[in-house]
Amino acid sequence: MTAAPAPVNEPARPALTVRGLTAGYGGVTVLRGVDLVVRRGEVVALVGANGAGKTTLLRAISGTVPATGGTIHLGEDDVTRLSPAERARRGLCLIPEGRGIFRALTVEENLRLSTPPWIRPACPDAAYEAFPLLADRRRQVAGTMSGGQQQMLALSRAILSQASVVLLDEVSMGLAPLIVDVIFAALAALAAEGRSLLIVEQYVQRALAMADSVHLMRKGTVTHAGHPSTLDETRLVAEYLGQGMHSDQPVDERAGQAAVGE
Ligand SMILES: Nc1ncnc2c1ncn2[C@@H]1O[C@H](COP(=O)(O)OP(=O)(O)OP(=O)(O)O)[C@@H](O)[C@H]1O
């Protein structure tokens, strides 16, 4: 699914618009009026300290955490009150932290289940093209594969669902650097196809390098939004994760070395 190019000098139309969104868990408010726009074909990095509300925002956009206020639009459509399944049907795909694959099923069975019912016939070939290693392992039980291979399988859902807006939560979490390269190449390929990506990522530098814009979250609100060049990561680290850490380490590792100043 490729987004139509915007006329020259005109920004692409919004694929996802979040306005004044509030949400939380069991009466505890986490999101406190979030505003965010992801335009068609754009990659947006969502950054902020542990507990800032990034995962909750992705859940609220996907519908797995209900909004208590504000609105969520996919394109022109208000989806705020729609079920997660209906949002998926309208082109939204969440790749949650922790992979979300069927560990007892084979690679091929997972890929067939990853293809939503409105896309028929189910055809895993696009996933095998993106990740040839999965083709070699199509009959392997998913739970017996390495973490990186399982993450390729999880990411395949974004490919096979043909979603126009993909939400990605820490997809490189716990993976070896070489595998992280493969995962980021897959994200770049999704973006090149014109999908809109909203990325929460522990490798902040890498996410910023491929992003068209960055949104910084703090305590359930977006405190900064703009081109990645407007957000100096040194400042990000200093403000949110403490001083004296190396920016080429994953944020989670750095957070382990210094108290998070929330
Ligand atoms: N299932 C849940 N039930 C209750 N509270 C939750 C739940 N999930 C998250 N929270 C709380 O919501 C707040 C925001 O958490 P969230 O996971 O959205 O932040 P985050 O920015 O993604 O941080 P992290 O990088 O640590 O995942 C935290 O205070 C957290 O404890």
Automatic annotation (TrEMBL):
Gene3D superfamilies per record: P-loop containing nucleotide triphosphate hydrolases (3.40.50.300)
Coiled coil: none
Keywords: Amino-acid transport, ATP-binding, Nucleotide-binding, Transport
Organism this protein belongs to: Parafrankia irregularis
GO biological process: L-amino acid transport
ABC transporter domain: residues covered: 16-244
Similarity-based family: Belongs to the ABC transporter superfamily.
Molecular function, one GO term: ATP binding
Name of the protein described by the UniProt record: Branched-chain amino acid transport system ATP-binding protein
Presence of keyword Acetylation: no
